[in-house]
Specification:
The complex is a heterodimer of chains A (237) and B (236).
Chain A lengths: L1 E12 L2 E13 L5 E4 L6 H9 L6 E6 L3 E6 L10 H11 L5 H12 L14 H13 L5 E5 L7 H13 L5 E5 L3 H7 L2 E6 L2 E5 L2 H11 L5 H15 L1
Parallel strand pairs in A: 3-7, 3-8, 5-6, 6-7
Antiparallel strand pairs in A: 1-2, 1-4, 8-9
Helix pairs in contact in A: 2-3, 3-4
Chain B lengths: L1 H28 L10 H21 L3 H4 L11 H30 L8 H28 L1 H9 L1 H7 L11 H7 L3 H13 L11 H21 L1 H6 L1
Helix pairs in contact in B: 2-4, 2-5, 2-9, 4-5, 5-6, 5-9, 5-10, 9-10
Chain lengths: 237, 236
């Protein structure tokens, strides 16, 4: 269970300071996967970082009654001049892992990046980085995994593998995802949180959350979009 | 390739510095300038390495936090960890290089073996802590105010000049000496030399206590800064 209480966060910039999150309250029950949605700059990544403990709120608190992963994302998590293997070793040691050798081979076989595993991480493509990041976090037994657009850069095969792995973990662990990819959210999450003007709106059903968000931002619902696409194809023919 | 060159330069840089100073000394100053109780070359090498130990800590720790920013994704990793690890690594490298020079010097016949090894190790550690103290402060300050990081980098050469590495400070007038003795690096280097050369005449007023007080104060300020600004350093 993760309890977010009266959480507020602001960033200072040249024009003063703007509240990104203002008095946000919600509780994520155990084993409920949640999708975080909202426009660019709505504070999704910020919220995820605060939940992970990587960043700290200006007001309020986050109570974590379970093992929460670090935010698995596009950037960060790796020291660029060390190899993939060295990074994995480092993270394993930081988390007090007992059998580092087993963990390394687990990550290596999941990431499937071949010989690059022994090359410096700064030579990796973004897809390779996300493969490694995902493999690394999945090698630990976290109760809640945090993913910040981590799935969006992998190729089809890897995306499928990642979501299959998560599905196989349903019941023992859950995931909190920040993503703009609706299909991933609908596939992996059951509940949704819409971040709107510094407030968090909780939805028990991710589909309702996405639909309402789309209506709000003027995007037609998914059925209409499918219909439009079909119509466009017909016109071309 | 770049890794191999890095190791080469770690050894070549001080070697080149020593060669240049020997040339300057024999050509410009002549051979008769005398240091009481020590040969010039070993005297200079000990001072130079003592200074390098301090300088590498001061300079390399400036970028420790920004270079390892990505690792703050793990909440177990704190900014100070990156600084401490880097300090240990740099100091270890400097120690190994110094030992290589001591052994090489012994083979060639410079007499670089310390006459009081335990004291030499102690003063070496004191110089390390001095660099660590400055580095701890610098690592925080240079992230918060990048301009100060630049100023610290610029200060490296002037510090070399006023730390009594290149020429003995007791060549200078007494009044000037008193000002230079405010600099704790001078104390560290002179003490290190005194452990290496038994008959070396140390500057008057050089004191372990003074150096240690500097060390303690710098460490304290550095640690306080790290506690105070931990969250800011992570977020930057």
């Amino acid at each position: 269970m993760i309890i977010v209480k009266n959480l507020s966060k602001r960033y200072h910039n040249h024009h003063g300071s703007k509240w990104v999150l203002k008095d946000v309250n919600f509780t994520i029950p155990s084993n409920v996967s949640v999708g975080l949605i909202g426009g660019n700059g709505a504070g999704k990544s910020t919220l995820l970082r605060i939940i992970s403990g990587m960043d700290s709120p200006d007001k309020g608190e986050v109570i974590r009654e379970c093992k929460v992963s670090w935010p698995i994302g596009l950037s960060g998590g790796f020291q660029g001049s060390m190899t993939g293997r060295q990074n994995v070793k480092f993270v394993a040691r930081v988390h007090g892992c007992d059998d580092i050798g087993a963990l390394i081979s687990k990550v290596q076989s999941f990431a499937e990046i071949g010989e690059s595993f022994d090359e410096p991480v700064k030579t990796y493509s973004s897809g390779m980085k996300s493969r490694l990041a995902f493999g690394l976090s999945l090698a630990f037994d976290f109760d809640v995994f945090l993913s910040d657009e981590a799935t969006s850069v992998g190729d089809q095969a890897f995306r499928k593998k990642a979501s299959d792995t998560f599905k196989s973990k349903v019941g023992e662990s859950s995931i909190i995802i920040v993503s703009h990819a609706e299909d991933i959210l609908r596939e992996l999450c059951s509940a949704g949180i819409w971040l709107k003007e510094g407030q968090a709106i909780w939805f028990d059903d991710i589909n309702t959350a996405i639909d309402e968000y789309n209506v709000y931002s003027g995007i037609p619902p998914i059925e209409v979009r499918r219909e439009l696409r079909r119509a466009a194809r017909r016109n071309k023919l | 390739m770049s890794d191999r060159m890095a190791w080469f330069w770690i050894l070549a840089e001080p070697a080149a510095m020593v060669l240049i100073m020997i040339v300057i000394r024999t050509v410009i100053l002549g051979r008769n300038t005398h240091i009481a109780g020590a040969e010039y070359i070993p005297w200079f090498i000990v001072g130079l390495f003592g200074f390098y130990l301090f300088r590498e800590n001061m300079m390399r720790l400036l970028n420790a936090i920004t270079a390892n920013k990505a690792l703050f994704a793990y909440r177990q990793v704190k900014p100070i960890d990156t600084v401490l690890v880097r300090s240990c690594l740099e100091s270890l490298i400097r120690t190994v290089v110094f030992i290589i020079f001591i052994v090489l010097g012994g083979v060639i016949g410079f007499g670089l073996i310390p006459e009081e090894p335990i004291m030499a190790i102690g003063y070496w550690l004191l110089l390390w802590v001095l660099g660590l103290g400055v580095g701890l402060i610098g690592s925080v300050v240079s992230v918060l105010v990048p301009e100060i990081g630049r100023v610290i980098k610029i200060m490296s050469f002037p510090l070399l000049m006023v730390s009594g590495v290149l020429f003995p400070i007791n060549y200078l007038p007494y009044e000037l000496q008193q000002y230079l003795l405010f600099n704790p690096i001078v104390h560290g280097i002179e003490l290190l030399r005194s452990a290496f050369f038994d008959s070396y005449k140390v500057l008057p007023n050089v004191s372990v206590l003074y150096l240690s007080l500097w060390n303690l104060s710098l460490l304290l300020i550095g640690l306080v800064l790290h506690i105070k600004f931990e969250l800011k350093l992570k977020a930057k």
